[in-house]
Amino acid sequence: MKVDIDMGAASAGAKAMLDLEELLATRLLVQGNSGSGKSHLLRRLLEQSAQWVQQCVVDPEGDFVTLADKYGHVVVDGARTESELTRIAARIRQHRVSVVLDLEGLDVEQQMRCAAAFLGGLFDAERDYWYPMLVVVDEAQLFAPAVAGEVSDEARKLSLGAMTNLMCRGRKRGLAGVIATQRLAKLAKNVAAEASNFLMGRTFLDIDMARAADLLGMERRQAEQFRDLARGHFVALGPALSRRPLAVTIGPVETSARSASPKLTPLPQPGEDARDLIFTPAPEERRVVVRRAVVPPTSTPTADILSQLTQTQFVSAAETPAPTLFPEIDETERNGMINTIMHEMLNDPDASFRTDAVLYQDFLVRCRIRRVLGDPLSLPAFRRNLAVARAGIDGETAQGEPWQQALELSKGLPDDVQGVFFIVAQAAVTGSPCPSDATLARAYGTHSARRARRLLTYFEEQGLVVVRTDFTGNRVVAFPDLGCETGPGDPNGPDEGVQEQHAAE
């Protein structure tokens, strides 16, 4: 079904129409400096298409929550745990509800983590729920930065990965990305390059004008026109908009943002009581100051002090030291307690789908309960220990040369994929069948079997493994550096870890 959305006026008095079905297949990029009318454009698009397609708005400033009053969008407060946001996103796709993810009040790193969890939940939805959805991300440069900023590398990788999935692989899952940014130079190129439709607004910096001209197929000398665009005026290009660059004026909207552009208002006339207004505290500011009498310390006679200093204390070598509050624990016993805590955490079926930050906090609490002495593990050390524990290697095999060499090989891999590497390496060292895609996906913290297969491809590209399929369709993974390989295993088999838990229950 062909649905055209009226975006406003084009040249010669014609209407600027946007093919909604084509947009779902080709995605959209909106660029313009602050005050150019990007949010107005997005609001026009959302209002005109609200009755035709499910919508999701990632809103860092809380401007789009007013859509709920007129169009029935459900506002999702971003001040939740990442696991909660992931589950909510899955239910959103299942029940086809339009939502606004309100991230107002969170700092930049929290916004990136929340958006990554939410977009990941939309992306990982079951195939039965891959209905068409318009995913609008305002201020996209916050969630897909071109360079590292002040946020942690982990948050940046999570957010950038979610945005890349949305723009690169979301189409087959029904997700149509619509991203808006103030500056193209600040937006990751692999995210911007996946859009086939463009609406370019006013911009002044040469580097942004040059990139906008390149995306629109214009000559560099024509890029000067972007400086002259008025508020709400854009240059459109793309299969859903126009085959040639087209000047567009965005039409009016029915809802408004909670925050508007500042307007000049006259200052109040200064009066004689202006100083009193500034320097006199309001009634609610007044506090009763309780003055406590200072009790002077009791003086100690000088003779007593000299007597204490001249006394010599002799400690017998045979004297037993005072008992400590906690018994001393050697390093072996401490590591054993840490391993026990790790396995207790992994016995929880939901542990594989929780973020490392959540598991790390749970680990620290358990260590305090068990009174594990010494400095707590750092987050990188915790991730590595957790990955080894997930592999389930026994003590005798862990001391062998092949496993020690596997540990060395894993040091060059990112933290988030080491758990999958250890599970496959454990199967190779012990000669067990190759783990199924479901088992590898659980170790990676996802339900997507395709991600698990991509990880094996990544390991093969790094020269760590060789993957082959035997004549019966079973998969075998060989480790040339270790001199061993897994047994044949069905890649489409069930999750062995879940089966073991059910058997134990």
Automatic annotation (TrEMBL):
InterPro entries linked to this entry: ATPase_Atu1862_pred, HerA-like, HerA_central, P-loop_NTPase
The UniProt annotation puts the region (Disordered) at: 483-505
Q: Residues in domain Helicase HerA central?
A: 11-76
Q: Which SUPFAM superfamilies match?
A: P-loop containing nucleoside triphosphate hydrolases
Pfam family membership, one = DUF87
Name-wise, this protein is Helicase HerA central domain-containing protein
